[in-house]
UniProtKB/TrEMBL annotation:
Family of the protein in this entry: Belongs to the tetrahydrofolate dehydrogenase/cyclohydrolase family.
Residues reported in the UniProt entry to bind NADP(+): 173-175, 239
Gene that encodes the chain: folD
Protein task: Catalyzes the oxidation of 5,10-methylenetetrahydrofolate to 5,10-methenyltetrahydrofolate and then the hydrolysis of 5,10-methenyltetrahydrofolate to 10-formyltetrahydrofolate.
Keyword Amino-acid biosynthesis (UniProt): yes
Protein name: Bifunctional protein FolD
């Protein structure tokens, strides 16, 4: 398979960058088809303040949308924007028929309640998959927008030909954005799932049982070679900056010696996140067109 690299006695490296590029080519054709039917998928991104990482993420989202033909608009608001002003903008976008997806870039300035902002987004336009209505639908397995990073992991595994059903999957991390939804999506794919976190006793004893190990805690090198079962699939969701370099939650060189597959950082899960945001926006436009009849 083209998106896999391997060396003797080392895990195959899953290139999220290549999988994402292939998916975006598919999206281009899908958007062309929709545009020919008079449906133009639209994405609105709201960025409050001047956090450099957030600016970088938003640029990536804007570039990705333009690349596949999605109409995108970015609202860049000053850090002193009030919560009411932000909520008013969300209400306007909720009513805008040209917008099918609304994303508010997190984190927000401290004076704004993130929960109130997430709750204000129309669940039918919540392409981040963070609204409690979408979270609840994900839990019971009905159609909804799935959070982009864990959904991207599922696509990576499937496109690499890795079977999830029947495996023992261990998720290290329990955040609302990655850990918890990752566990639920794996459960929905018929894996047996264990969730570990900062209070887990003897973490290594549990990670060594995993056929599929997902590291998502944001602590560089927390997963070492001796914590991985030989032949396990290891997905590294961590993004940490160490001495100016991006590294994951796994000791990549060590873990690669025992795993069967591994994702790198950068170039692994990261490119899939924006790709799944584009996927959700296109899906939203299709659902809107279907409702309109």
């Amino acid at each position: 398979m083209e998106h896999l690299e391997t060396t003797k006695n080392h895990a195959i490296v899953i290139s999220g960058k290549e999988i994402a590029a292939a998916m975006r080519e598919e999206f281009k054709r899908e958007v062309e088809r929709l545009r020919a039917e008079g449906i133009v998928p639209g994405l609105a991104v709201i960025l409050v303040g001047d956090d450099p990482a957030s600016h970088s993420y938003v640029k990536g989202k804007e570039k990705g949308a333009n690349e596949v033909g999605i109409y995108s608009v970015v609202h860049r608001l000053p850090a002193e924007t009030s919560q009411e002003e932000l909520l008013a903008m969300i209400r306007t976008l909720n009513e805008d028929p040209a917008i099918h997806g609304i994303l508010v870039q997190l984190p927000l300035p401290k004076h704004i309640d993130e929960e109130a902002v997430i709750f204000a987004i129309d669940p039918d336009k919540d392409v981040d998959g963070f609204h409690p209505i979408n979270v609840g639908k994900m839990q019971i397995g009905t159609e909804c927008f799935l959070p982009c990073t864990p959904h991207g992991v599922i696509h990576m595994l499937k496109r690499t030909g890795i079977s999830i059903e029947g495996t023992h999957a261990v998720v290290v991390g329990r955040s609302n954005i990655v850990g918890k939804p990752m566990a639920q999506l794996l459960l929905n794919e018929n894996a047996t799932v264990t969730v570990c976190h900062s209070r887990t006793r003897d973490l290594s004893a549990i990670t060594k049982q995993a056929d599929l190990l997902i590291a998502a805690v944001g602590r560089p090198g927390i997963i070492t070679k001796d914590m991985v079962k030989p032949g396990a699939v290891v997905i590294d969701v961590g993004v940490n900056r160490v001495d100016g370099k991006l590294v994951g939650d796994c000791d990549f060189a060590g873990v690669q010696e025992v795993a069967s597959y591994i994702t790198p950082v950068p170039g692994g899960v990261g490119p899939m996140t924006i790709t799944m945001l584009l996927y959700n926006t296109i899906e939203s436009a299709k659902r809107w067109a279907k409702k309109r009849g």
